[in-house]
């Protein structure tokens, strides 16, 4: 998660090789190069962009800027336009940050110390903290002068103007929405894990309501309840938001605009992510038509006796005239290039056909579980899975969702009770740590060949079907990124040919296309499915029955996802905002 406060400064920049096809950066670039002091990183802004940066406005407009990493472009002579009060989603294949680069990481680290979570959030308001500190200093003096009294009156006026009395209630509300109960809110930050400290960092950013809130995969460290609260909260956000996320429902619910990074350029679309997908599909169809038209014209000119170079020159001339006709400022036009056939990024796979097994297939009978020296996570659980099951286990972090899955697959034994498994049952498990089991000295192809006795081409086919680029197939697993390892693990899951698949936060290292492909594969799968996920769209698309862990009890939720969402927000005392994601899905079905 990447959050930015108004006075945030660049703290760190880590880079790994940028692997997409990009042009090398020329040694001399027009415009002004901004020196950052960070090796391997270059930012260039054109002269027009410089003048726009000087305008006194809460809008952001930078024209003709470029950003490079290790001599390769990430953004190349493109324009950034951010309008105050809009909520932007930044999407595109180049934004698989974990597998390419960590860009301008502006995380305000929450220190692990004795300060409580609540006070860390309150301290984010620097002005309020300074006034309260000054008040305490004045009140601690043994004698009060008239000057002190006058200053105290001024402090109280300033605190009243900023509604300081309501600050603690506001901070508590935000922390509660992100999953902190009252006890946790007063717990020292040193007693929280890194994931929970990330939530505190997010709470700080929300608390001060910055002019620009920048979020990088904010849902990755949140459970489903916190994601539901956050997207509802941000729908009422009055300032500007720029978010990078692979959670389509979150982008649908929160965003008013989408910025698409494609071929090093930023393209702007009004509306949420679902509307963007429809517009992008139409744009791709038009691009294919234009490309086919160009190729047909080239073929005709070559048939008429023109050489290949002459035909290409003529086509470029025609494209140049078309570009000039549609351009506002001719001096900013880039050199004309022939149209390239649009590349399609397709992730599509299926689970193998299953063997029908007689029930009981997998179940828990009177199961209770606790870790040594701790309270029971759940008691007297009776739960069954069959070949038609589509189950999503939900609840806040820490209630035992992942532990329940570990008991089902056999990693843990119940403290009390019995696990029932069909002796012929094969269980396939996938989570964000699945790749840890691999022999990292092997390549993905070698791993599949050795583990499943597959032919070389079949290994390549399976790896390609889950979106792993061909050049990665022969690289040792230890040298792959987190996202690439996740795809190897997904291919491993498919190759197991299981009757039941168990998925624990499967979307964390997957891009949007892969998450969609996983949902489609689950819908075609003939076996049982159990999911723990914070991804609303995956749960909706697979039509999962919701099971809730609460107060040490696992129960089937009576209602659909919208009912659960409304019930949760009502419990948190939040006004329920219309759910754009659900509304769009309903419109498609009609």
Automatic annotation (TrEMBL):
<dbReference type="GO" id="GO:0016887">
    <property type="term" value="F:ATP hydrolysis activity"/>
</dbReference>
<feature type="region of interest" description="Disordered">
    <location>
        <begin position="299"/>
        <end position="330"/>
    </location>
</feature>
<dbReference type="InterPro" id="IPR003439">
    <property type="entry name" value="ABC_transporter-like_ATP-bd"/>
</dbReference>
<keyword id="KW-0547">Nucleotide-binding</keyword>
<dbReference type="InterPro" id="IPR017871">
    <property type="entry name" value="ABC_transporter-like_CS"/>
</dbReference>
<dbReference type="GO" id="GO:0005524">
    <property type="term" value="F:ATP binding"/>
</dbReference>
<dbReference type="InterPro" id="IPR027417">
    <property type="entry name" value="P-loop_NTPase"/>
</dbReference>
<keyword id="KW-0067">ATP-binding</keyword>
<feature type="domain" description="ABC transporter">
    <location>
        <begin position="362"/>
        <end position="576"/>
    </location>
</feature>
<feature type="domain" description="ABC transporter">
    <location>
        <begin position="60"/>
        <end position="288"/>
    </location>
</feature>
<comment type="similarity">
    <text>Belongs to the ABC transporter superfamily. ABCF family. EF3 subfamily.</text>
</comment>
<dbReference type="Pfam" id="PF12848">
    <property type="entry name" value="ABC_tran_Xtn"/>
</dbReference>
<keyword id="KW-0677">Repeat</keyword>
<dbReference type="InterPro" id="IPR050611">
    <property type="entry name" value="ABCF"/>
</dbReference>
<dbReference type="Pfam" id="PF00005">
    <property type="entry name" value="ABC_tran"/>
</dbReference>
<dbReference type="InterPro" id="IPR003593">
    <property type="entry name" value="AAA+_ATPase"/>
</dbReference>
<protein>
    <submittedName>
        <fullName>ATP-binding cassette transporter subfamily F member 1 X1</fullName>
    </submittedName>
</protein>
<dbReference type="InterPro" id="IPR032781">
    <property type="entry name" value="ABC_tran_Xtn"/>
</dbReference>
